[in-house]
Amino acid sequence: MGVNLTKGGNVSLTKQAPGLTSVVVGLGWDARTTDGRAFDLDASAIVTDADGRAVSDQHFIFFNNKTSPEGAVTHSGDNLTGEGGGDDEQITVNLASLPAQAGKVVFPVSIYGADSADSNGQTFGQVRNAFIRVVNSADSSELARYDLSEDASTETAMVFGELYRNGEEWKFRAIGQGYSAGLSGIARDFGVNV
Hints:
With 194 residues, this protein is mostly beta strands. The chain has one domain: Lipoxygenase-1 (Sandwich). 10% of the residues lie in helices and 41% in strands. The chain has 3 helices and 13 strands. The strands form 2 sheets. Strands 2, 4, 5, 6, 9, 12 and 13 form a 7-stranded antiparallel beta sheet that branches. A 6-stranded mixed beta sheet has the order 1-11-10-3-8-7, with no helix packed on it. A hairpin with a 2-residue loop joins strand 12 (157-166) and strand 13. The chain is globular. It starts with a strand and ends in a 5-residue tail after the last helix. The model is unreliable at 114-119 (pLDDT under 50).
C-alpha cells in the first residue's frame, strides 16, 4: 500500500520502489449533481526544468498533445464524464527517458474550456472524490496517493501534484493549488505559450 499524503506532503518514490523507471499517474474525480449540463475535467502534464519553466511548448501534454517530443510522457486520452470507479485519466511518465533538463512533471486538472466553465458557473467546488495517485508501472503497486479535500469553490483549474527530481531520487509532492484563470493560466505560469 502506498503513502497517503496531505497537502504539501512529499514522498521519495525511488525509496518506495528501488530501481523505479516508469510510473502511471492516475487522476480521478466525480462531479457533484449540478443542473444537468455536461461536466468534463481534463488532466494534463507539464514537463519543466528545475526552476519550474516548461522545457518547451511541446512538453505541455494534454488531450490535444498526448505525447511529449521524446515520448517520455504519454496521456491515455480524455474521459468526458468522470463516471465509474478508479482512475478517470492516466498519464504515463518514463522517468529514464525524460530530457536531462527536466526537473519536474506537474499535473494540472481543469474544467474543459475555462471560458465555458466560467460561463457555465462550473468550478472545482462542484467536484468531489478528487485524487491523484502514483503507480509503479512495473508491478502496478500504488506508491503514493493524495485525496484532495479543499474547497475550491471559485477555481476552474488545479495543480493536483508533481513529480520532481531531488539529486538521484524522484519524489512526489501533493499540491492542491487552485487557479481561477483556468488551464491557460496554469500553462502561462509555467512558461507555455498558449
